[in-house]
Amino acid sequence: MTDVATLANALTAAFERVHHERMAGLPILHPRLSVAVIGARQWRQDWLGMLLTPWCMNLVIVPGSASTFVAGPVGSKQLIEFPAGTFEFIASDEADIGAFAACSMFSPMQTFADQAAAVATAEAIMVALFEPEPGGAQGGSRGDVAATSSGAGISRRDLLRGRVSRRC
Hints:
Elements lengths: L3 H18 L14 E8 L2 E7 L4 E7 L13 E6 L2 E10 L3 E9 L8 H15 L15 E3 L5 E3 H6 L7
Antiparallel strand pairs: 1-2, 2-3, 3-6, 4-5, 5-6, 7-8
């Protein structure tokens, strides 16, 4: 990938194809959600963004051209450190994207009322991901609250740790 727009377009196209070819008709799909990439940015030597689909929301890392990051064999797991803490990613591979790694944030997506609610949550996660956890990775509970589509508050730490979601 050469830039953020190229990454976002490639991920969107690849997962729209997955949506229409492999996921079509499955009851897990949220009918009011569509595929989107939120907050795509260069991070270290790689590309990072939140992949929103009608079936899940995943933080995705795609190796950049000068990257030393290796996603690993499909299905393998690895821990990746961010300012907010360490997160488990699972290696994957998709046509037109190549090897990448994904960290599940939400699945299924029925928690969200609509696309706007899912996008707002994805944006909040992308901001929180780069905020250092008070007291380091093993610090105490955060006082910040991220809004969910239901209006209930959850801590950013719990949101980022996946404590409010089921895995893809």
